Amino acid sequence: MLHYDPPLNFYRSAITPPDDYSSNEFNATLQIYPFRPFSGNIEQMFQKTLLREWIDPRYQETNVAGQPDFRLASVPGAQIVLTARFAENIVGIAKPRMRMVIVAGRPR
Hints:
The protein is 7% helix and 41% strand.
């Protein structure tokens, strides 16, 4: 079970899933999806597709600009945490995006 504190100064949307938060201070949103079973190489799939097919259609990017910057991160209790920073090209304007995958459960 993933437990987290909702981000401060963010408004939570009533439409779920995913848990959707919008900042009250600047132009930013955060979506949190529940854990799901997965078999295979999650790192390879994340680098190939950014797990776009797991993202609610309201938040899927349509035009990734350039190569994403993939990194490892850490979260207490997680086996591995993968992040990707990338830009979505929206009518010539680069919109920064970040995606994070937290892997918990079975060993890799």
